[in-house]
Amino acid sequence: MTQDIEFVRAQFPAFEQAALNGQAFFENAGGSYTCGQVIKRLERFYHERKVQPYGPYDASRLGGEEMDEARTRLAAIMGVDTDELSFGPSTTQNTYVLAQAFASHLKSGDAIIVTNQDHEANSGPWRRLADRGIEIREWKMDPETGHLDILDLANLLDERAKLLCFPHCSNVVGEINDVAAICELARKAGVYTCVDGVSYAPHGIPDVGALGADIYLFSAYKVYGPHQGIMAIRRKLGETLPNQGHYFNGDSLYKRFTPAGPDHAQVAACAGMADYVDDYATHHGGTGEARARGAFVHDMMRAHEIKLLQPFLDYLGNKNSVQLIGPRDANQKAPTVAMRLNMPGAKAAEQLAAKGIMTGGGDFYGLRCLEGQNIDPNHGVLRISFVHYTTQDEMAKMMNALDEIL
């Protein structure tokens, strides 16, 4: 069965707005359109439940129940226990809080492994722990391909290594790393894993339980939701790390890494992400429990993306004026396609904007990633990124516009 693109686009009010008419959106890696299910819940919360939650009166009780619903349903889709999932103001903030917890937990001489493929949010906070006596080791990608070779990682794992931080896929390279295999290798070496899923989760919420990551992070606003960071942390690790929240919340796993109170309305609205998964699955014939429906939706979204992505990668591969970053096989790549052009990436994005193509150019907070591939971050790259609601007509329009500017 193929995805019903008309049904999908009907779930996103942005496609009905006159202000966006005639423009094709290709900067989804920076943040996706919000689905109507999320908007409906957010609007209802502000209209009816914008009070302190978990109180005895109806508005407060219902607000708290909706916040709990978001955690329960998203955790079920991700294959983790409800209290292993928590919300924070952003993935960057969640990572920073985690880094502070590890800084108190580790001792001088312990090692953390990071990559140069990452977005800075999952690299910078860990690298700063060098000031606390923690050794920082870098798992380097191939400068020609951007690939992270698992054989190179094996050489970095020893008795001093305690944590491995890496992306599910880079927001520049786009290659989908084999998270399950990497986590298994680290686990056998006694090393915890922290996976940045920000650039992968928009292409199907992952089954974190199956991947085996100790920590998995992503941003709701890139997965059709509000601006919240979502973090899953396995119980054993979460209860081992020192509490970063209020001392009286130390016994509550989902509060241990939330130093400040969450945005009640946005947390509640995240239940709309689960609504969308359910509605999508039901429309396309998906059945079973939440985890099975989530896997069904993930696979359908990816199938649609791959169908659109492979012709685009083939098109770019035939252009001598384009340095395509990352793999050329759509099965190995998220539809996040960065390319170095003769002109600066930001200038190319400006020219495309004038032709109704909304995209971005620059370094995308991946300076180390660009430098690791011998690309000047000041020159930057053009990044074309899309998701499952993108159409073949939009792809054609985008490639015609690229032909005109190259």
TrEMBL record:
Q: What is this protein called?
A: Nitrogen fixation protein NifS
Q: Which UniProt keywords apply?
A: Pyridoxal phosphate
**Record bears the keyword Isomerase:** no
Does the UniProt entry include the keyword Cell cycle?
A: no
Q: Which Pfam families does the record associate with it?
A: Aminotran_5
Mark the transmembrane ranges.
Answer: none
Q: What is the scientific name of the source organism?
A: Paramylibacter kogurei
InterPro entries membership: Aminotrans_V_dom (IPR000192), PyrdxlP-dep_Trfase (IPR015424), PyrdxlP-dep_Trfase_major (IPR015421), PyrdxlP-dep_Trfase_small (IPR015422)
Q: Where is the Aminotransferase class V domain?
A: 25-242
